[in-house]
Amino acid sequence: TQNTVEKTPVTLLGLGAMGTALARAWLAAGHPLTVWNRTPARAAALATEGARVADTPAAAVAANGLVVVCLLDDASVAEVLSGTDLADRDLVDLTTGTPAEARARARWVRERGARYLDGGIMAVPPMIGVPQAGGYVFYSGSHELFERHRETLAVPAGTTYVGEDAGFAALHDVALLSAMYGMFAGAAHAFALIRKEDIDPAALAPLLADWLVAMAPAVHQTADRLRSGDYTKNVVSHLAMQVAGTPTFLRTAEQQGVSPELLSPYFELMRRRLAEGGGAEDLTGVIDLLVH
Ligand code: FVH
């Protein structure tokens, strides 16, 4: 039966909000779990739920072949792992960092005789261990390691492997989160426009959400254009027309007493692309202006 199947033992370093959620998911699925946290009090509740608490990172790493780290940043990972013996360990780093940090950490870990997989978590703690919440983790680095631990890694959240380059998980993570911040910025401007009017923000919210969902598939067209290099084929809303419309947005902001500082940088890029002759394109050409 399910209960008699041996589950891979896991060591987890870091019991912040995310680490604690990961720990609970593995415990609930029956994985033997050894944990360590700088502030020991954070491990107390998990101990009563079945986790073994190690006194030091070195003891935690020595306990199991699969070692997962989920700490604040790459500097804390370096600090915590520095006194441990990583020889022959499978290290999975779920700490958020840059692609360059992940690549450097992969080299650092391999030099110490361990295998490395980097992870970028696309979820918040309440989504962990809740498959229907849709959270998942990007993984990159050793594919062999990913395959070996695929089942265990899939316990807290879905898994999406994005390549042998250890930096790719972080890159995908930051790319998606950057798009999210762009969306939040647009929504913030929209709410600011109605802030002083007799319009209920709760009435605007569903309109905003539906509009953003309706516009989101445009990213597929952008990808097609980037692949083909043709930014003008079947364009519905030309850049020239869109740039001509930007003063309306800026005047509306001014009339509503709203700063244009979130919109202006994007409009400026649109104007530059138009000036360079991109009037018949859609907005794809703006991407090329961003890349140095
Ligand atoms: N929470 C979230 O919404 C996001 C969702 C997406 C992924 N992120 C990333 O996950 C990493 C961990 O985040 P977290 O939510 O667990 O963060 P905290 O609750 O702040 O816990 C931080 C843990 O790191 C330990 N720590 C910090 N500095 C050190 C250090 N120098 N040496 C040893 N440990 C350190 C801290 O220990 P303590 O304060 O309890 O002693 C916590 O265990 C992170 O990369 C997010 O970007 C989360």
UniProtKB/TrEMBL annotation:
Residues 165-290 form the NADPH-dependent reductive aminase-like C-terminal domain. SUPFAM superfamilies: 6-phosphogluconate dehydrogenase C-terminal domain-like, NAD(P)-binding Rossmann-fold domains. Keywords: Oxidoreductase. The keyword Oxidoreductase applies. Coiled coil: none annotated. Pfam families: NAD_binding_2, RedAm-like_C. This is NAD(P)-binding domain-containing protein. It comes from Streptomyces edwardsiae.
